[in-house]
Structures are given as C-alpha cells and as structure tokens.
Amino acid sequence: MEKLVNPIVKKDLRVICRSMKFSWGLFAYEAVLALAFCLTMLVIYTSSGFSSMRSNVDIYEGYVAFFPIVGVAQLCIISLIVPIITASSISGERERGTLDVLLTTTITPVQIIIGKVSSAVIRVMIFVFASIPLMAASFIMGGLSWGSLFVYIILAFVFAVMTGSIGTMCSAFCKKTIPAIIMSYVIYGIIYGGTYLPIFILSLIVDDVDDVYWMLLGQITNPVTSFVVFFVNALTGEGFNDIFSYGGNSSDILEFLFSTPVWLIISSVFQLGVAALAVLIASKKIRPGKK
User: Which of 40, 165, 197, 256 is most deeply buried (CB count within 10 A of its CB)?
Assistant: First the structure.
C-alpha cells in the first residue's frame, strides 16, 4: 500500500508534520473562523432580541447563517494561502538546487507535479475538515440537510485541486517564489473577479435574457459562482434560474444547464479540466532539457 503513495506526497507531508509552522497556521486559521463564528452568534442574538419584541421568532432559525458565513470565510482564507503553499513547490526546489536531482530519479515530471498538487490539496482539506465542528451548528440546530455539507466538501476539494494546480504551474514557470505568488494571485483574480466584467457590461446594454445566460456560461470555471449558487440553493431552495432570471424566460437547454445540480456538476468537471491542463503544462515546463 505504501508503494502506491506518490513519493513526493510522502516526502512533503513528512516535512510538514515535523514543522510547527503548519500547526501554528492551523491554529491561526481556526482562530479566524472562531472569530467569524462569535461575530455571527452576536448578530443572531442581537437581531433575535429586537425581533422578538414584535413577533415570535425562533432563534434557532438563525443558526443556518453559520454555514455560509464560516464557509465563505474559509474559502477566502484558502484563496489567500493556496498561492503561498504552492508558490514554492517547484521554484523552491530550484532555489535549493534539488530540482535537477529530482528529475534524474525514476519519478516522471507528471508524477512530480501531481505529487506537489496532491500535498497542497491534502493540506487544504485538513483546514476544511477542521472547520466542520463550527459549521455543524447549522445542521444540528439550524435544520440544514447533512447532504449540503457533503456537497460543500466535494466543491471545496475541486476548488483546492484547481487552485493548487494553477499555483504549481506558476511555480514551474518562475525561478523565484515571490514572482510565482504574484503570478498566482493575478490568475486567480482574473478567474474569480475578471470574468464578471463582460457579464456586467452585457447586462446593462442587452435586454435579451438568453444573451445574458449564454454569457453566464463563461462562469462555469469560476468557483465563486459555483459557491454562490450552492449556498443560495442550500439556504433558500432557489436555483440558478431564480438567482439570474432577469425577469424573463429562457430556452429549455438553458433551463437545464442552469439547474443547480447540473450546474455544479458541469462546473466541477470544467474546474478539474483546468487543473489537468495546468498539471500538463507544468510537467512539460520542468521536463529535462527545459529552461
């Protein structure tokens, strides 16, 4: 069984487990989420106190808010730390002069890149699983379905794979760690925010709902849109068509594509496709004979 484990993953995780940096990073991560949790609790109790003067409000309904708030805070933190985690994956090997030695072993460039991405994804998923006790309040007391938590973990995994792959690709192209971090943030910024600009401009100048819907298909590789659709659907039951209806009717094919389950599946497949492409590009970049 041990032979099936990627040697890069085994080596990286052994180094991580021996370092206190990861433990302190996990502690800081939990501290930030705990702060978000306490602030949410304060808002829930304050708003429930004022509302109860006018009507009979069940305070437990407010616990549903823990899920999206803690989940979004977690995703924001992951978006910030993934470039830092992956930026030194290949450039760090270059700086230490160990990449050439690594390429002389029986490990192929593809295995090296997959190992680096896998170790980053494992670290990210440790952070995700560490936050489950905080989000559990939404399911135990707020009444949310536990299936929503399962779907969230899958989406977070896909998100970690894509961001980890892009960060590792940037590391393969840069000789130093700092430029790799900057390059990663630029690409993430374009994916997360830049893709909304054409849709915003089109929605202002076009009245045809179908045109706007087709532009929204460009968001299929954007994890931000996927999480917005997921959280809104989990909390309210509304789907993509309800969120982005624009007051008009759309064709049957668009109705099907923008139904929440189909959208999340297609988006996850596309994100994994982007990750596979990034792994392929990075492996070609570091193969022997490449500069």
Answer: 165
